[in-house]
Fold this protein.
Amino acid sequence: MTANKSQQKIHDSFIKQMMSDPKVSREFLKVHLPVNIKENVDLNTLQPQKESFIEKTLGINYVDLLFKVNFGDEEGYIYIILEQQSQPDWTMALRLHKYVIQIYSNHMERHPEAKRIPIVYPLVFYTGKARYNAPLTLWELSEKPDLAKLLLIEPFRLIELHKIEDDELRKHLWSGTMAFIMKHIFARDILPSLEAIASLLKEIGDRDFIYIEKILWYVLEKAESSSVEKVIDFFKEIVPKEKRGEIMTLGEQLIEKGRAEALKTVNQIALEKLQEGEKNKAITVAKKMLAEGFDINKVAKITDLSVDELKALLH
C-alpha cells in the first residue's frame, strides 16, 4: 500500500469512528444544518447506517456517511459526503443527486408498501484548502441553467393517450397513427379501428413500407380480432401492389409464430399438470408407507420426495 493510501485510510477511519459517536454527529449537525431543517428534524433519533454509495472507481478521496433520522413523525435520512482533496469536484452536485436517488430507491425497496419517498438532506464536508468554486446545484452544471432548473423542479409532462380525441390523433400522420393504434390495440376487435385510419395507413404505405410492416407486426402480436386473415387482407389492400406479397409473407410468418407459441404454452401446461399428478400419486404412496411404519429415508428413496416433505406429511 502506498503512503498516500495508508494516510487516507487513517482519515477515513477517523471520520467514520468520530461521526458514529452520537454526541459528535449530533453536535456537528446542530452546528451545520440550516435553521429550517433543524426545526423539522429530531436529532435524538439519529442512527448511523452501514450503506455507502461512493463508487470504488473514485479512489480514496471520498467518504460518505448515511444517518437515519426522523423528520417529524416520518423516517428520513441525512447524507454526508466528506470530500478530501486539494481541489473541489466540479461534478459533485451531479454525484450527490445520484446518491440521493439511490437512497430513495433503497428505502422504497425496504418499504414496498410506502407511497411516498423519504426526506433526504445531503451535505458535503469539504476539507480542501482551495476555495470551493464547483456548482452547488445540478442546474448550474448546464449550459442553460435557467431552463435546466425549470425542468428539474417543474412537474414532468404527462401525456394521457386515452384523453386525446381520435380526431386530434388523425391530424398527425406519423406519430398520430402510432398513438391511434396504441390507443385502440386492446379493443375487442382491432379491425374497425384500423379502418378508421385507412387513409393515413395508405399514405404511409406509399411513403414508408417498413413503417407498415412494424404496425402489422404490432397488431398481430398484441391485438384481438375476429379474423386475423381479414386484418392481413386489410393491410394488403393499403400498400402498393408490388408490396402485397411481402405483407402476405409477413402475416403468415406471424400467424405461424403465434401458433407455435400457443402450442408451446399448451404443452407446458400439460407437462405441469402431469408433474403435479405424479407428485400427488407419490404423496399418496408415501402417506401409506409412513402409516405402515416404513423408514422415512427409504420412503424418500422410493417416492423421490425429500425428507423435509415427508416430515411435513407426518404433522
Q: What stands out?
A: The first helix runs from residue 3 to 19.
